[in-house]
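If your schedule permits, I should be very grateful for your opinion on a structural question. I would ask you to consider whether the tokens describe a fold that such a sequence might reasonably adopt. Thank you for your consideration; the sequence and its tokens are set out here.
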Amino acid sequence: KHVLSESASYAPVSGGYKTVLLDNAEGIREDFQQALRRVMERHHRTTQFVVTTRQPSKLIPPIRSRCFSIPVRAPTTAEVVAVLERIVASEDVPHDADGLEFVAASADGDLRTAILSAQTTAEDAGEITMDAAYDTLGAVGHDDRIEAMITEATNGEFADARSILDDLLVDEGVDGGEVLAEVLRVARSRSVGPGAATLHRLAGEIDVDLAEGTDDRLHLSHLLAELDR
């Protein structure tokens, strides 16, 4: 909050405006969004704010009303491959076309995920080929941590469970809806947590909250707290 406010207060070096970009804004907590609204109001004459999000409904109405919405389609696999080709060429990473296409396709239109997946593959295997990408990305999953999170919550270890949740939401940028879907899948496949009926009832309530709310962490934390009851 302090950094954003201070940055917005500086006069532009050149031109009439300076630009502040807030990426993945759906992950911003509601209290920070309220602070952001005040910063936008205070510095609108010298600063333009670009807010990018895949879930506009997660932004509070005062911010949405102050923004001009520009829908942007997800990039195609070919477009993602083109971006990855430029990156691996500049970083001199050994690769082949099949490997880049596999990484791009597995990201399902999410360029950020594709770049992170390519980086992970290059770091783990030293190259981005079909075999390397398949081995690396196939091993990158959240099942063990999701299971641990459910188990900790069910056993009353709420702080430990929420720590795992924070890792997924903040460090890895997993969407709240994706976490909820993974909780249901892992609980069913590994027989952890409360009974299926109880878990699906809770998940149904949380799914509505996620669709209408602005704080994935708050709603999923509520789910974890309920698992101990």
